[in-house]
Amino acid sequence: MIPSLEPEKVTTRLLYYEDAYIKQFEAKITEVICMNNSVGLVLDQTAFYPVGGGQPADKGVVKGENWKANVVDVQWRDGNPLHIVGDVEGEIKENDDVVGVLDWERRSALMRNHTAAHLISEAIRQAVGNPIAIVGSAVNVDKSRLDLAYEGSLRELFPKIETIANKIVKENRPILMSIMSRDEAEEYVNRFHESLKTLPAAVQKVRIVEIEGWHACACGGTHVKRTGELGAIRVLGRAAKGKGVERIEFVAQSP
Ligand SMILES: [Zn+2]
Prior knowledge:
Threonyl-tRNA Synthetase, Chain A, domain 2, Elongation Factor Tu (Ef-tu), domain 3, 4 helices, six-stranded antiparallel barrel
């Protein structure tokens, strides 16, 4: 659904892939980049998720021995996450040891709404009875949206979509992550009415996110461990976004 994957030339260890629940971590600065009004930091490892795949970047703070700064954005640059920091108090230097602390309230809301996007996409498919291509997605703290290749309005199906999605929340299914070869992944997601069509041809190692036994697709974002960590999922509304594109907004409420 959200085909953003670990880039091939990444040298930063991506802790959020190993454990999406890391709230604080230690690291070393490998590069300090001076930018117009801010400073960019590359770390040897990070739990900060860089913007990508429809999921916004994490925020938080980084602290050295004699300095402190706010992480205001994280972007991919030359294959690695670049932490853009502001409000710097003190002098930041290469090779400094740092402690990074995520704004956990923000990240956990993003993880819930991102995971809800997986549930909603499959619930829509089941409610409609046919596979529907997702042409866009945006996860946020207070709500998320999916843009679907669909003629007409899905409004009548909202109650059905919510019922299907919330049944899976109640079942508290595990959410599983695995990396596989592209061929293997294609075959795997086909079983769940998904494909890797939108994935660039160069991507040969694919990260699969599966709501156990119910839905699987390629995704590079952060997710909760079990569907029961989501509160009730509510469909908030719809809009027609041009010919043949239906936008659905939804939120996973706090459990
Ligand atoms: Zn995902």
